[in-house]
Design a protein that fits this description.
The structure holds two protein chains of two kinds.
Chain A (H helix, E strand, L loop, with lengths): L9 E5 L4 H13 L2 E6 L7 E2 L2 E4 L2 H8 L3 E4 L3 H13 L4 E4 L6 H11 L5 E4 L4 E4 L3 E4 L8 E8 L3 H12 L4 E6 L10 H10 L5 E7 L4 H12 L4 E6 L23 H10 L3 E2 L6 H6 L1
Parallel strand pairs in A: 1-2, 1-5, 2-4, 5-6, 6-7, 10-11, 10-12, 12-13, 13-14
Antiparallel strand pairs in A: 3-4, 8-9, 8-11
Chain B lengths: L4 H10 L8 E3 L2 H11 L3 E5 L12 E4 L2 H11 L3 E2 L2 E2 L3 E5 L3 E12 L4 E7 L6 H7 L4 E5 L8 H10 L7 H17 L2 E14 L2 E6 L3 E4 L8 H4 L9 H8 L3 E4 L4 E5 L2 H15 L8 E4 L6 H13 L5 E8 L4 H14 L6 E7 L2 H10 L5 E3 L3 H15 L1
Helix pairs in contact in B: 2-3, 5-6, 9-13, 10-11, 11-12
Classes of the chains: A alpha/beta, B alpha+beta.
The structure holds adenosine-5'-triphosphate and magnesium ion (MG).
Magnesium ion binds next to loops of chain B.
Chain lengths: 286, 389
């Protein structure tokens, strides 16, 4: 068992003919993900990596029965790509693209709220259910099957934590990157709830960062609804106020969204907070 | 990206919002000339990317052109919250009867635009928000529908605006919302939206303007990109943006180059974790981004090396979308273009890590050390700075 994706996931790659789309489609296929096709308007009928390319997501879905899509489309067209996948009623849409304008995401989010689809991201590394399926850009070899669920706003910092767990022999149910944008499709709260309900997940790692109040809301949820232990790490303790630290969402505004505030709130509900990423396995084993 | 007050007000005017017809001066004589041309009382206002200019003495009323010259000479060169004033706006003085606050911004938690108004606008709005937040009326806008007339009514009646000003207010609120959408802004603020007596009439006028543009939306607004004031940013941050890197200058000694924002923050935190007791910390935040290519990595190294405080460099790359062989080639290219004797600690791990490490090793650079973990890399960087002291 796992959350969101498993060996039955049928994936279509939006933007499969681009450099990044192609490279990562190849990596996903090698990992064992069931990639059933790609989408690129104007290239329908072609083949990439032995997979059929379609002009639209709808056509791809009809022909292949895909239930998941991943987006490697440049920022200008990414919101459009998400909306196309929503319109085609794809169940899970994963958007890797970074730098989508926030007003586009507000509209996308408003439409998602009344749709059958779930969006992960944008500006995220995707997700990985070790040994079953990888949808995104996480390096597959860092993860191994096991009982820990991982959820994170960051890309490479997630790899860091997952790799540290794997090296200590602690496997994962699913590793989920929700992305670092201020407005995204899936929140910490959504994923925590899924891990709480997943019978194979015994413990959870949450990796947050400065900016916004998602981690604080996650703490409230953990306090009220979670029976499984959670270990957290929050990046950006040395971030100056008013400066965007790479992720559009990583911004301390006034005194809202500081690492200290989040760490304190998480600790107050019994979450163990690691001082640095490589300490996460120690806290998980305690 | 922040706009100056004069730039924001020009943008507001394009959306039908009444603003004063002032001009910008770069020296005291220009201020004198503008004040003379405007005639009557004028206001001299510092143009810097900092709030609270009025309270800092950056906004002064001038009765005569000579006064305007006098004020301008004092305000120019003034330091407001770390920003040096190098231009002033000279606006005609207004006969103010009341000050309203009106703003549109993103409400991150609600995932919607938020429009706010208060009858108690002016320089103490932060205080109003702190002490009596109920005096600020807040209305969320559905981004798919846009701002509707009834919502503006809600604002106008919520702040007890006299009925005879409603028509003007509606036009201004709608204009401000359209400006926010049409500029990919994250903030459009008028404070004060003043109730002004002019030629025997009562009108609403935007005496101050503030706009912040979403950097990710700038591509759609080339006309706004030209308004960027690079004199307000550290040189390194400008160079970084031109190379598509995200960089924030800090005041430590360890130059950090990392891929991914979260890991870059964690790396900063780690250097401080080990270095704090010796007064050592990160010199910068630098994310070489998802698909960093050799040119970008080289540009990143050049930016780090241009900071004279840097005594050691920590390169921490965990390859996901970024491939370690690309990064390694970038490091070698940069080293040949910008040679340095500074100690460099490199940690490469992830996609194509063997190829990456092979490229680094075959280059035989003596000041470069490898590290296996982030913990080890940060410790080595702190040691290197201590050795250099
Ligand atoms: N043209 C004008 N005529 C008369 N008074 C003015 C004029 N412009 C500004 N003022 C007065 O000066 C005060 C401060 O000006 P302004 O709002 O532009 O700066 P500020 O709010 O202090 O700056 P910041 O936006 O940096 O916080 C206003 O609240 C208003 O009372
Ligand atoms: Mg003001």
């Amino acid at each position: 068992m796992a959350i969101l994706i498993d060996k039955n996931t049928k994936l279509v790659v939006q933007g499969i003919t681009g450099k990044q789309g192609r490279f990562h489609a190849q990596q996903m296929i090698e990992y064992g993900t069931n990639v059933v096709g790609g989408v690129r308007a104007g290239k329908g009928g072609e083949w990439v990596l032995g997979k059929p390319v379609f002009d639209t997501v709808k056509a791809a879905r009809e022909a292949t029965g895909a239930n998941c899509s991943i987006i490697y489309v440049p920022a200008e067209g990414a919101a459009d790509a998400i909306l196309e996948a929503v319109d085609a009623e794809v169940e899970l849409i994963v958007c890797i693209t970074e730098r989508i304008p926030i007003q586009d995401m507000m509209k996308v989010r408003a439409i998602l709220d009344h749709s059958k689809s779930r969006l992960l991201g944008a500006n995220c590394p995707g997700l990985l259910t070790p040994g079953q399926s990888k949808v995104g850009i996480m390096p597959g070899y860092i993860a191994t099957p096991g009982p820990v669920g991982v959820v994170s706003k960051s890309g490479t910092l997630t790899y860091e934590a997952v790799y540290a767990l794997t090296q200590r022999g602690i496997g994962q149910t699913t590793c989920v990157g929700i992305g670092g944008d201020p407005i995204n499709g899936t929140s910490f709260l959504d994923v925590l709830q899924m891990f709480e309900e997943d019978p194979n997940t015994e413990k959870v790692v949450l990796i947050g960062e400065i900016g916004g109040t998602d981690e604080q809301k996650a703490a409230d949820f953990i306090d009220k609804h979670m029976t499984k232990p959670v270990v957290a790490f929050i990046a950006g303790q040395r971030a100056p106020e008013g400066k965007t630290m790479g992720h559009a969402g990583a911004l301390v505004e006034g005194n809202v969204g500081t690492a200290a505030e989040k760490i304190e709130k998480l600790k107050s509900v019994g979450v163990k907070v690691a001082a640095y990423p490589e300490q996460i396995p120690d806290l998980i084993m305690q | 990206m922040n706009l100056h007050e004069y730039q924001a007000k020009l943008r507001f005017a394009e959306f039908g919002i009444p603003v004063p017809r002032g001009k910008v001066a770069f020296n005291a004589n220009e201020a004198y000339e503008i004040a003379k041309e405007l005639g009557g009382v004028t206001v001299v206002k510092a143009q810097v990317h900092a709030g609270g200019r009025g309270k800092a003495g950056g906004v002064k009323v001038a009765k005569t052109p000579e006064d305007a010259r006098e004020h301008a000479s004092k305000i120019l060169g003034m330091n407001i919250k770390g920003h040096t004033v190098n231009k002033v706006l000279v606006d005609p003085g207004a006969n103010i009867k009341g000050e309203i606050y009106l703003a549109v911004t993103n409400d991150r938690a609600a995932r919607k635009p938020l429009i706010m108004a208060s009858a108690e606008g002016g320089m103490d709005i932060e205080e109003v928000n702190r002490v009596s937040p109920e005096k600020i009326v807040r209305v969320h806008v559905d981004p798919l529908i846009g701002l509707r007339g009834y919502q503006i009514t809600e604002l106008a009646s919520g702040i007890n605006l006299p009925h005879d000003l409603w028509k003007q207010f509606e036009k201004i609120a709608m204009g401000l919302y359209n400006c926010y959408v049409g500029s990919d802004a994250t903030l459009c603020e008028i404070n004060p939206l003043a109730v002004v007596e002019e030629y025997g009439q009562t009108i609403l006028k935007a005496l101050d303007g503030k706009m912040t543009i979403d950097g990710n939306g700038l591509g759609r607004h080339p006309e706004l990109e030209t308004l960027r004031d690079t004199s307000e940013e550290p040189q390194e941050e400008i160079t970084a943006r031109e190379s598509d890197l995200s960089y924030v200058k800090l005041d430590g000694q360890i130059g950090c180059m990392v891929n991914g924002a979260g890991l870059a923050m964690a790396t900063m935190d780690m250097t401080a974790h080990f270095g704090e007791q010796y007064g050592i910390g990160p010199a910068n935040f630098l994310d070489v981004g998802g698909g960093a290519d050799p040119d970008q990595v080289a540009a990143a190294l050049r930016i780090i090396l241009s900071d004279k405080n840097v005594k050691a460099i920590l390169i921490n790359i965990f390859g996901g979308i970024t491939r370690c062989d690309d990064v390694a080639r970038g490091i070698i290219t940069a080293m040949s273009e910008v040679p340095t004797q500074l100690p460099i600690i490199v940690r490469l791990i992830g996609t194509n890590q063997e190829e990456g490490l092979a490229i680094i090793n075959s280059a035989n650079l003596t000041n470069m050390t490898g590290a296996k973990t982030l913990y080890e890399a940060a410790q080595k960087a702190v040691e290197a700075v201590r050795g250099a002291k």
